[in-house]
Amino acid sequence: MKKYARQDQISMATWAADCAERVLPFFEEAYPEDDRPRNAIETCRRWASTGVFRMAEIRGASLAAHAAARDAKENDAACCAARAAGQAVATAHVPQHAYGAGYYALKAVAAAGGDVGGEWEWQSERLPERLREEIMGRIVVLEQGVGVSIKLRKGEGF
Fold first, then answer.
1. Is the pLDDT of residue 152 over 80?
2. What's the Cα-to-Cα distance from 13 to each of 45, 46, 123, 129, 145, rounded to whole Å?
3. Cα distance between residue 114 and residue 151, in whole Å
4. Over 101-150, what HEC string results?
5. Which terminus of the chain, N or C, has fewer Cβ atoms within 10 Å?
6. Tens of pLDDT along 89-100?
7. Nearest-CA neighbor of 97 among 39, 138, 36, 52?
8. Confidence of residue 40 (pLDDT cuts 50, 70, 90)
9. Distances, alpha carbon 84 to alpha carbons 74, 107, 129, 142, in Å
10. Residue 144's pLDDT band (boundaries 50, 70, 90)?
11. Cα distance between residue 44 and residue 81, in whole Å
12. Is 50 exposed, middle or buried (0-12, 13-18, 19+ CB in 10 A)?
C-alpha cells in the first residue's frame, strides 16, 4: 500500500469530505432524522483541521455511516451517499479510503440520474494537481448503453 505524506492525507480527506457532502442531500432528503452520514463528514473535517486522531471516534463514525447505508439499501442514491461519508472519515486512518468517497459519490449521482461526467470533472478539479492523476485515474466512468458504470481500479500501490 502506498504511503502518503501527512499533508497529502489531509488534502485527500478534505476532498473526500467535499465529495461526500456534495451528495449528502440524497441521503438527508430520504432520511431527515438520520444524522450518521453528516456526523461522519463532520468528524472527517474536524480531524483534517485539528490533526487530533482518536481511532474510536474515526472508526465509530465510519461504521455508523455504513450502517446508515445498509439501512437505506432500498434507495441506491441515499445508500451510496452514506457510503461516501463512511469512506471519507476513514481517510483519517487509511488515505486510500478517499478513493472510496469519490467512487461512492459518483455512484450516488448515477443512481439519482445526475450528470456523472460533470461530477467526475468537479471532483477532479478540486484535487491538488500532485494527486489528481493518481486518484482520478483509478476512478473510471464507463458509458454503457443508456447507463453508466463506475469502477475503482485497484492494484499496485492501492
1. yes
2. 8, 10, 13, 15, 34
3. 17
4. HHHHHHHHHHHCCCCHHHHHHHHHHCCCHHHHHHHHCCEEEEEECCEEEE
5. N
6. 999 999 999 999
7. 138
8. very high
9. 17, 9, 22, 20
10. confident
11. 15
12. exposed
Distance CA 149, CA 131 (A): 23
CA distance 137 to 130: 13
Q: Which three cell numbers stand for residue 129?
A: 494537481
Output the nine-digit C-alpha cell for 117.
Answer: 461526467
Element (H, E) at 152: strand 147-152
17-31: burial string, b at 16+ Cβ within 10 Å, e else = bbbbbbbbebbbebb
- Look-up of cell digits 445498509: 70
The count of residues in the chain is 158
